[in-house]
Amino acid sequence: MARANYLIVALSLHVTWLLFLSKPCIALTPETSPSFPAILIFGDSTVDTGNNNFIPTIFKANYSPYGKDFPGHVATGRFSDGKLIPDMVASKLGIKELVPPFLDPELSDDDVKTGVSFASAGTGLDDRTAAISTVIPAMKQIGMFKNYIQRLQRIVGVDESKRIIGSALAVISVGTNDLTFNFYDLPTRQLQFNISDYQDFLQNRLQSLIKEIYQLGCRTIVVAGLPPIGCLPIQETISFPIPLNRKCLEDQNTDSEAYNQKLSKLLGNLQSQLLGSTILYADIYTPLVDMINNPQKYGKPV
After folding, report:
1. Residue-wise over 195-219: b if at least 16 C-beta within 10 A, else e?
2. Of 66, 74, 90, whose CA–CA distance to 7 is shortest?
3. Most-buried pick from 100, 102, 187, 246 (CB within 10 A)?
4. How would DSSP label each residue in 6-59?
5. Backbone phi, then psi, for 75, in 5-degree steps?
6. Which fold has domain 6-298?
7. Domain map of the chain by residue range?
8. 233, burial (CB in 10 Å: exposed 0-12, middle 13-18, buried 19+)
């Protein structure tokens, strides 16, 4: 079985989202880009475009080899060799080429008008996850969003601010660190929850996050499911220290699938509750498993 490093797995996740968001059936194409004047990002390292550069944490990606394939070959704080999904989606929709981190002190008014990332690498829905990494909890990113709205209002006025946010595309990618850091690897939450109950705890937090984003004006929200956690290199390495013995942990993958099934149902229920909302589930599990099991389909020699 092919085992990509974390950066390749993350990049595959991003490309998968790009394909998902480009499906004509949900009308997210360059031709419809005026419907999305801005992109707003919440979550963890898969979508943190550099916020961790500006907080006191060791979870940073502002050094080599990060960014080796980024324009200019510079490390920007993105946990990737190149662009992240916010950049790819924003470019695909004709919004802009790069999505800046909200905490960047040099953030321009033009970038505020077209969207930012509030994400923080190492974070989770569970506040304990963020505490382990001393990063910004997912729920605290709502406070950043409120500050963003205030700045946007100063730039364009209250009415135009409401229009931009109401027409913006919001993306949420979070949850993986909760299970890896807080349940499997540092089993602090196993003392309180079984896996099903912990999944429910996380999704209750996620539901609150989505409702807060909705109450602040967003109407189109894409939520990523979990990847096959048992195939993440860190999980394989912890369980199988000898490289030749490494393989995916099927019990953890089964947990991810169960989480995703619950999530898909939750998002459908939420959309029916939140008037005028479009809440989309992005399945990243299925294509990533296919990439791992069939790398030759994606250009990797067998």
Report:
1. beebbebbbebbbebbebbbeebbb
2. 66
3. 102
4. HHHHHHHHHHHHHHHHT-GGGT-SGGGGGG-S-EEEEESTTT-SSGGGGSS-S-
5. -80, 120
6. Rossmann fold (3.40.50)
7. 6-298
8. middle
- Contact yes or no for 202/263 (Cβ under 8 A): no
Q: Which of 284, 286, 183 is nearest to 238 (CA)?
A: 183
Distances in whole angstroms, Cα of residue 244 to Cα of each of 2, 240, 241, 250, 300: 12, 9, 9, 17, 19
Question: What pTM was estimated for this model as a whole?
Answer: 0.89
Q: Which amino acid is located at 294 in the chain?
A: N
